[in-house]
Amino acid sequence: MNNLFRKNKYLIFAVIFVVAFSLLPLLYSVYLAGPDWQGILLEYTNDGLYYYARMSDVGKGHVFIGNPFFLEHLKEYSPAFFGADWLASWPLWLGFSLEQTVVFNYLLWPLILLAALLTLFKTLGLSRSRAIGGAVVSYLSIHELMSRPVVMQVVFPVYVLFLVALLRYLKEPNDKKNYCLLICFYALTFYLYSYLWQIAVVTMFLLLLWWLVKKDWINFQTGFLINFNYDQVGSGEDSFANDVSGSDFILGNVELRAIVYFYSMVRTGKQKSA
């Protein structure tokens, strides 16, 4: 037992540090509320309550998150994709309360991010101790953003895992496991968050451009196939977008669908400002 602790002491300290630091926003919010706090969720980021409402709506079975504030728009589709909301809300389906789910997410996703960062730095060739140090420093640099429920709490770990899959593929492009892993994480970005898939697509486009300039036709063809397979895996999302937008201009019009949604959001803003 002692040998196991000595061998992994830096990793254990890193896990304890990340867990403790991740809970700080919640503890600080409770501290600010003072002795009158009655267990009601507090908003640490300026849109925290909005994402709590979305999580609650998913937990109630309204998985397309039409509008969590107004009943008349309950069956509308969200104008943005919502895979991250599902990943943040699944404890609600197991019987957890919203408060317990929020605390659970504050613990789970930073640990997933830590594991993803460790894997990323090891893939880059860093030693174990440097990988742990780099993971902790990287976590600290985005700690405040990781306090934002759903986004960026879920998005950052998935983005790092996408980078891990990409690096592994670049190191061993002939390994079919790396090929499939990259396609899976590449496609997953499309279902989670609009800005995430945009970054992933630009990254792959720049790689294709680089291989084209270098006349590396083998990697260029493989990269083209990755993008093709990515499009096939994401075809379910495209079909959904077609249903939502009713237009062939999928990527643009899906964000502009359901004017009543935005009308209700204007009403929400007026009520908050009042």
Describe the 3D structure.
The protein has 274 residues and is mainly alpha-helical. It has one domain. Helices cover 73% and strands 0% of the residues. The chain has 14 helices and no strands. The protein has helices at residues 2-7, 9-33, 48-59, 83-93, 98-123, 128-141, 143-146, 155-171, 176-192, 194-214, 217-233, 235-245, 250-253, 259-273. The longest helix is centred in the middle third of the chain and has 26 residues, at 98-123. It is flat and about 65 Å long. The model is unreliable at 240-274 (pLDDT under 50).
Main attributes of the structure:
single chain, mainly alpha, disordered C terminus
Give the topology, please.
Layout (H helix, E strand, L loop, with lengths): L1 H6 L1 H25 L14 H12 L23 H11 L4 H26 L4 H14 L1 H4 L8 H17 L4 H17 L1 H21 L2 H17 L1 H11 L4 H4 L5 H15 L1
Helix pairs in contact: 2-5, 2-6, 3-4, 4-5, 5-6, 5-8, 8-9, 9-10, 9-11, 10-11
